[in-house]
Amino acid sequence: MGTILAPYTQPFGTAVEVDAQGVRVRRAAALASDRMDRLARDAVFGDDAVRHQARWLIWELGQAVGVRPASIHSFYMARGRGDVHGFTVPAINVRGMAYDTARSIFRVARRLDAGAFICEIARSEIGYTDQRPAEYVAVILAAALREGFRGPVFIQGDHFQINPKKYAADPRPEVDAVLQLAREAVGAGFYNIDVDTSTLVDLQREGIPEQQRLNYEVGADIMAFVRELEPAGVTISLGGEIGEVGTQNSTVAELRAYMDGLRGALGARLPDGTPGLSKISVQSGTSHGGVVLPDGGIADVKLDLETLGRLSQVARDDYGLAGAVQHGASTLPDAAFHNFPRTETAEIHLATNFQNMLFDHLPVALRDEIYAWLRVQAKDERKPSDTDEQFYYKTRKKALGPFKRALWDMESEAKEALAQAYDDKFAFLFSQLAVGGTAAAVARHVSPPEMHRPNASVGSADGAVAPDDTDLSD
Q1: Is residue 351 pLDDT above 80, yes or no?
Q2: I need a labelling partner for 448 at 20 to 30 A (CA). Which of 271, 301, 410, 417 fits?
Q3: pTM for the predicted model, two decimal places
Q4: pLDDT-derived band of residue 467, with 50, 70 and 90 as boundaries?
């Protein structure tokens, strides 16, 4: 198992024993205390030795008490069979103040007895939030432990996506970048990966199967690679996508062309019986981040629920998937969310509104500092027609990485107000999406294996891969 490196002293005292045989939790209540806050901070901001040791300890504590990264694949297959239904799984992109945000998610989940929810981060977000997969997994697990949550933790790579311009210029390096990111993510504990090659759909080709060909062929290459990365006892949940978010709405014909082509392509790359997708992302009228109006508000969305419901049904009935996935939904009006369980939408991706809430609760001085930074560092992204409100709204996510420590260190009064706002919003969404009370169903269908890691050593873990800088998150 290795030995603890000298520079690091674990913060739990006699409540946790760490030696060459591993980690034993003597008093679990100590994990749900401010001692976990120190461990989480060490996992993000510590020097190399401290950071790696803290991440290793968080992983092992989770293994010891049953807070383990898990694949949602078997749960989604149960949904495809009709064994579970009537809810929509929220997949939440945790960007800024990740530890505090995730604490709110798990706090609400525990209160509502929810188990069917996902924490995710997109390829683009990994870059601009400065959160590599190893850090992200540690922070999410630490937040779950801090809130006393128990059960599988679904951590997802959202939009592991091919940049079409880079692919057109030279396909191999762009595909390799996604493969390297997948290797890093799975190694860190991402057991749910959304492979998004929908940007390669070519509507100029004749016939829908030809339009989808690059989408499913390149997607199959990436998916087959991910299958080879699976740890023992884990079947990674894979998602595909047929419609790039923000473009025209998807059709049943496109879904069939993609799924039939993908099945054939995967069959040629993997042994018989190897699992395929568990879900399929479609376009039904939304856009990432919403459409920003001159006053900084968001334009109304024309969500096509009929298309979403029909595609979900075809995905389940004809292909055994959990159903369709709705992206770009966090800026929808509150009155829209109860419709997703009604249409049996499998999963919904939520991101931008939580970022908006963060900026709404920033102390004025910190927000002014961030906006001053944007005026210099993001000036090339400003269109001549942009108002100040539009410019700040569209670019402020780029400050989340450079200001990560300042956000973690935000004054307690502002943090407490934001935590209450997050708790209220997550409770509303979990209720509207009907995932309260799903912990028992998740436990019936998901049994993450116990996986121990050798004690981390300096320089072993992050394996940073330059992310695509195109913003493709919700």
Answers
A1: yes
A2: 271
A3: 0.93
A4: low
